[in-house]
Design goal:
Elements (H helix, E strand, L loop, with lengths): L12 E10 H5 L2 H11 L14 H17 L27 H7 L12 E10 L2 H7 L5 E8 L2 H18 L20 H35 L6 E18 L2 E14 L10 H4 L4 E4 L7 E6 L2 H6 L2 E3 L8 H7 L2 H10 L3 E3 L3 H6 L8 H10 L3 E14 L1
C-alpha cells in the first residue's frame, strides 16, 4: 500500500453533466452565465464555501460520500447510479483521519480549489462513435458541464501524514525506498490498514465535494435556463487505490489497483456499471487544460488485460508552473482565450498563467494514443465555452 502511489489529491476526479442545451442557447447569456458560476462556485487557494462541517457531520460525510451529500439535499438519488462506487467508498474510517486534516476541510466542501481544477461549460464539437454517444446522451452541438476537483485540504493532509509515517516505518518492514515519494507499507500492517481507512475517507470527501458542486451548478443553470435538468453522465476518480478483481496469471483474483494520474475504464458488460451504461462501457472522462479540448471515451474489454481496466486521465504538464509564469501573464492568457470565444473567470491571474494551455502536453495526441492502444474508445470531443478556474 503506497501513499505516493495514490498521491496527495486523493480521488481527484471528473464528472460531466448533460444540460440538454445547445451553444446557441448559451451564447445569448454567456457572459452572465460565466459571472454567475464564478460568484457561486468558490475557487482558488484556500477558498471556502457555504457548507460548514462540525465533527459529527464531518465524520458522517467521510463515511457516506456523495450518498451523504444527497441525503443533505445536494442533488438527487438517481445521481448515485452514475458515480464510481455508487457515490460511497465502503471501508472508510474517519477516525484514521487526523484532526488537522479535518480542520482544513471544515469550510472547504463545495469548492474547486486551485491548480488544474476547474468547472467548464463545453460544447460537443465532434462525435467519433455515434452508438456509444447515443447511449451516453451526447449529440454534436450539445452543451455539457464538466467539474474537475478532488478532496481539497483533507486529501492533501492525509497524503502528507501517511507519507511521513510510511517513510519512518519502512525499515521496520524491511522496505528499501528508492525515492521518498514511493513510501509504502504492507497492506496488512497496522500502517497499511490505517492508511487504507483514511484514504477511503478521502475518496468519500472528494465524491461529496463534487456532488455539492453539482448542486450549486444546477442552481445557477436553473436561474438562466429554468427547464435545464443537468443530468449526471458520470463521475470517475483518478488518484485512488481500489480492490478490484482482475485476471492475473490466468486466475481472477482481488488486487489493490493504485491509479495515480490514471482513471478507471471498465469495459462493456462490467457488473459495476449501471444498466443504462453497461452495454457501452464506462464513460472515461479526459480533461484538457484551460483553453484546450477535452474528451469523453468509453472503457474497453481489452483494457482489463492491458492495464487492469485503466486509462489516461489527461495530458500532463509540459513545463513547471514557475516556467509557465515566466512565459505568460494571466491577463494575456485570458484575453487570448476571450478572442477565441472562451471566457475565463478566476481569482488569480498568476494561477491562470500557471495553467496556460501551452504549459501542457497535447491532450489530443494522448487521447489518440489511448484509443490506438485500446485502453479506451474515443466517443466525443468537447471544446470550452466558459472556464471557472482556481
Amino acid at each position: 500500500m503506497s501513499a505516493g502511489g495514490v498521491g496527495f489529491d486523493i480521488s481527484c476526479g471528473v464528472r460531466t453533466l448533460l444540460t440538454g442545451l445547445t451553444r446557441k442557447d448559451v451564447e445569448s447569456v454567456k457572459k452572465a452565465l460565466a459571472d454567475s458560476l464564478y460568484r457561486q462556485i468558490p475557487a482558488g487557494v484556500g477558498s471556502t464555501g457555504r457548507v460548514h462541517l462540525e465533527r459529527p457531520d464531518m465524520d458522517a460525510m467521510l463515511r457516506g460520500g456523495a450518498q451523504w451529500a444527497v441525503s443533505q439535499g445536494f442533488g438527487f438519488a438517481e445521481d448515485l447510479n452514475r458515480i464510481e462506487e455508487h457515490g460511497c467508498m465502503n471501508g472508510a474510517e474517519p477516525e484514521r483521519v487526523s484532526e488537522q486534516a479535518k480542520r482544513r476541510q471544515k469550510d472547504e466542501m463545495g469548492t474547486l480549489g486551485s491548480g488544474n481544477h476547474y468547472l467548464e461549460v463545453q460544447e460537443v464539437t465532434r462525435v467519433y462513435d455515434g452508438r456509444i454517444a447515443g447511449i451516453y446522451g451526447l449529440r454534436h452541438g450539445d452543451v455539457v458541464v464538466t467539474i474537475h476537483c478532488g478532496s481539497r485540504g483533507l486529501g492533501h493532509q492525509i497524503g502528507a501524514d501517511f507519507l511521513k509515517e510510511m517513510v519512518v516505518a519502512a525499515p521496520k518492514y524491511h522496505l528499501e525506498l528508492p525515492e521518498r515519494e514511493l513510501a509504502s507499507a504492507p497492506i496488512n500492517s497496522p500502517t497499511g490498514q490505517k492508511y487504507l481507512g483514511a484514504m477511503r475517507a478521502g475518496i468519500n470527501c472528494a465524491l461529496a465535494n463534487r456532488q455539492i458542486l453539482t448542486h450549486l451548478t444546477r442552481k445557477v443553470f436553473a436561474h438562466h435556463f429554468p427547464t435545464a435538468k443537468l443530468a449526471l453522465l458520470y463521475d470517475v476518480s483518478h488518484n485512488t487505490c481500489k480492490v478490484e478483481e482482475h485476471l492475473l496469471d490466468n486466475k481472477r483474483r482481488p488486487l489493490y489497483v493504485h491509479r495515480k494520474g490514471a482513471t478507471r475504464a471498465f469495459g462493456p458488460g462490467h457488473p459495476e456499471l449501471c444498466a443504462e451504461l453497461r452495454a457501452a462501457g464506462q464513460p472515461v472522462l479526459i480533461g484538457g487544460s484551460m483553453g484546450t479540448c477535452s474528451y469523453i471515451l468509453a472503457g474497453t474489454t481489452e483494457s482489463e488485460g492491458e492495464a487492469f481496466s485503466s486509462a489516461v486521465h489527461g495530458a500532463g504538464r509540459a513545463m513547471s508552473r514557475h516556467e509557465a509564469t515566466r512565459r505568460w501573464q494571466g491577463r494575456q492568457v485570458m484575453d487570448e482565450l476571450a478572442g477565441r470565444g472562451i471566457l475565463i473567470r478566476s481569482p488569480s491571474a498568476r494561477g491562470v498563467a500557471e495553467e496556460a494551455p501551452g504549459a501542457y502536453k497535447d491532450v489530443s495526441a494522448v487521447v489518440e494514443a489511448a484509443d490506438h492502444a485500446h485502453l479506451a474508445r474515443m466517443v466525443a470531443k468537447l471544446e470550452p465555452l466558459i472556464c471557472v478556474k482556481g
